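for the recovery benchmark. tokens below, seq after
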């Protein structure tokens, strides 16, 4: 069976003194006492998961886990994984309690502590996404990498320097504040993790971004092209970047072992500018909410509480039509054909109109 290697921050791993649970099913509550992060957000730890069945993307019974610090010192000795130790809905898709070693993982963040942490049905993403199986998932959600320059009222700001409350420029609504900023580091050696998408500056024709842009594979890009009107009856769409792979100078990145992603969330879905390219802020669909972690999801739901009970398409409409990956690939095929026809007719090589919008 293959081994999966993950990278977590120090504030996503914690020690605890004891835990207890009451109730079953939707009423299950798990209380963990003496929780204390083993490090800070700037410290990285390696999580080695053994005996992972092929195709599995989450922690399951029968696996073993070892955690090492950046100097390869063992922090958590090899121990068995038992996700169902908490039972019922108190178990969570974003956290994992280790029973034989007093440690836990919580992708949403572990308090500096020592503190008491309570997990309930809400930490299962029940009703808003997730598979509610109590098994911590390996996956991530759409975001941007550090180094991307976001357009703000004060000029260009590295996305890594942004925080909640900072102002960004949007295509539709002028200057708006960020409601939440999330960060996560992913292990790209895990086959279940999608490859980052690299967009070269030369793709965009005369109006080029200031530098290459790296996005997570699900992050959507604004596309403005006659093909959009023909295929989707609207002049502009937001297309997942992984569906556009194959267009000239848009490709999957390979060779990296780890990558850090940063997610920007606003009170309504917006189009912002990263290296001059029009891209989306986080759209809180079921998969994104499922992968955010308990703390991140709690913040999203505090900004838009209606998401607890209603579809995001109703209470948090997309800034443009949101294409599926399949639709994005159809659009990509049309753009390639458009480009080829232009070249055969002797015209200057056309831009695919993933426009830099000024």
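predicted aa per position
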């Amino acid at each position: 069976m293959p081994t999966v290697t993950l990278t977590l921050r120090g504030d996503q791993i914690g020690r605890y003194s004891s835990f207890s649970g009451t109730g079953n099913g939707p009423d299950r509550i798990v209380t963990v006492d003496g929780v204390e992060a083993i490090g800070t957000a700037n410290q990285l730890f390696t999580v080695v998961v053994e005996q992972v069945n092929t195709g599995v993307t989450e922690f399951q019974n029968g696996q073993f886990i070892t955690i090492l610090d950046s100097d390869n010192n063992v922090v958590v000795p090899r121990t068995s994984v038992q996700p169902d130790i908490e039972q019922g809905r108190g178990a969570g898709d974003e956290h994992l309690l280790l029973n034989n070693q007093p440690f836990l993982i919580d992708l949403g963040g572990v308090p500096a502590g020592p503190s008491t942490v309570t997990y309930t049905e809400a930490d299962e993403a029940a009703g808003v996404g997730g598979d509610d199986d109590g098994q911590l998932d390996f996956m991530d959600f759409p975001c941007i990498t550090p180094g991307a320059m976001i357009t703000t009222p004060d000029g260009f700001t590295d996305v890594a320097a942004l925080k909640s409350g900072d102002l960004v420029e949007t295509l539709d609504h002028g200057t708006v504040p960020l409601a939440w900023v999330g960060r996560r580091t992913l292990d790209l050696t895990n086959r279940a993790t999608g490859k980052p998408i690299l967009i070269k500056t030369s793709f965009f024709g005369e109006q080029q971004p200031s530098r290459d842009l790296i996005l997570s594979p699900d992050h959507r890009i604004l596309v403005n092209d006659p093909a959009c009107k023909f295929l989707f009856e609207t002049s502009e769409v937001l297309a997942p970047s992984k569906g556009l792979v194959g267009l000239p100078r848009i490709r999957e990145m390979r060779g990296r072992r780890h990558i850090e992603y940063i997610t920007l969330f606003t009170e309504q879905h917006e189009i912002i500018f990263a290296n001059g390219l029009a891209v989306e802020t986080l759209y809180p669909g079921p998969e994104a909410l499922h992968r955010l972690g308990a703390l991140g999801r709690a913040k999203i739901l505090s900004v838009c509480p209606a998401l607890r009970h209603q579809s995001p398409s109703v209470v948090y409409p997309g800034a443009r039509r949101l294409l599926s990956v399949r639709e994005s690939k159809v659009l990509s095929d049309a753009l390639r054909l458009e480009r080829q026809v232009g070249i055969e007719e002797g015209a200057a090589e056309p831009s695919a109109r993933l426009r830099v919008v000024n």
